[in-house]
Amino acid sequence: MSAGNSNTISVEIMGRQHQFACSAEQEEGLKQAASNLDFMFKDIKHKTNAATNNERALLVAALNLSYQLLSARNDIATYQEQHNRLIDVLKKAL
């Protein structure tokens, strides 16, 4: 990304404003990602009755996101395998 194509946006995570550089095309996605992370952080803090410190709550949110990503990748691989098997069946039928 060249400097001419980047924007600086401000998002709130953990009750604090954070600034990030991103391209105009990535801006909305970054805002949504920050909002999702902030929601997860607040939810974890609420569920633990704020007994968890911010760093721990953020770590749990990051682990949850990582798990969700890995699960989604596994689901995609499974669907791709099923799709390929169906294509093979259709090719044989023709």
Task: Walk me through this protein's architecture.
The mean pLDDT is 90. The chain is 65% helix and 17% strand. By secondary structure, it is an alpha+beta fold. Strand 1 and strand 2 (16-23) form a beta hairpin. 4% of the residues are buried.
Task: Please supply descriptive tags for the structure shown above.
94 residues, flat, alpha+beta, single chain
What's the arrangement of secondary structure elements?
Blueprint: E1 6-13, E2 16-23, H1 27-47, H2 54-93
Helix pairs in contact: 1-2
Query: What's the average pLDDT?
Result: 90
Structural class: alpha+beta
Backbone CA Rg:
20 Å
Q: Helical element count?
A: 2
From the structure provided, what is the oligomeric state, counting identical versus distinct chains? Answer: single chain
How far apart lie the N and C ends?
A: 47 Å
- Note the overall shape: flat
Order of helices and strands: EEHH
Estimate what percentage of residues fall within beta strands: 15-25%
**Which stretches are poorly predicted, pLDDT < 50 over at least 5 residues?**
none
Strand order of the largest sheet: 1-2
Mind describing the biggest β-sheet?
2 strands, antiparallel
The strand count comes to 2
Amount of helix: 55-70%
Short description:
By secondary structure, the chain is of the alpha+beta class.
